[in-house]
């Protein structure tokens, strides 16, 4: 059972680690294709947050956001493989920030082609989010292992 659990964590984390690796290889000086795809979506997100919530989003270079995403996915995925809750929390943080920005189906009419594509990707990421919550819940519900110390009785 321990091997199956480890294998499941490896397969799950590979989604994040391989994505971070690909973004790292394509990064260049400007953040690469990931930054190109993120820039217009982040601009729409900041406009919506500013206009609807009245919160001013600070100026952030897109390549720094891509770097942060790579770190969260890479480090979080690595720690997750070895069963660390920290890894799951890092991946959760990435999912919470990236999913509503990248898969903004709510900015499209239901009849548009982009709506269905983005909605499917959004729900897939919500499934990953749910799996991470499940992992954290199961990890916290298990009793901690205690070392088995043998107490020697003194003989007289």
UniProtKB/TrEMBL annotation:
InterPro entries: HR_lesion. Pfam families: HR_lesion (PF05514). Residues 1-22 form the signal peptide. The keyword Protein biosynthesis does not apply. Keywords: Membrane, Signal, Transmembrane, Transmembrane helix. It comes from the Eukaryota. The chain crosses the membrane at residues 78-98, 118-138. The keyword Transmembrane helix applies. This is Putative lesion inducing family protein. It comes from Davidia involucrata.
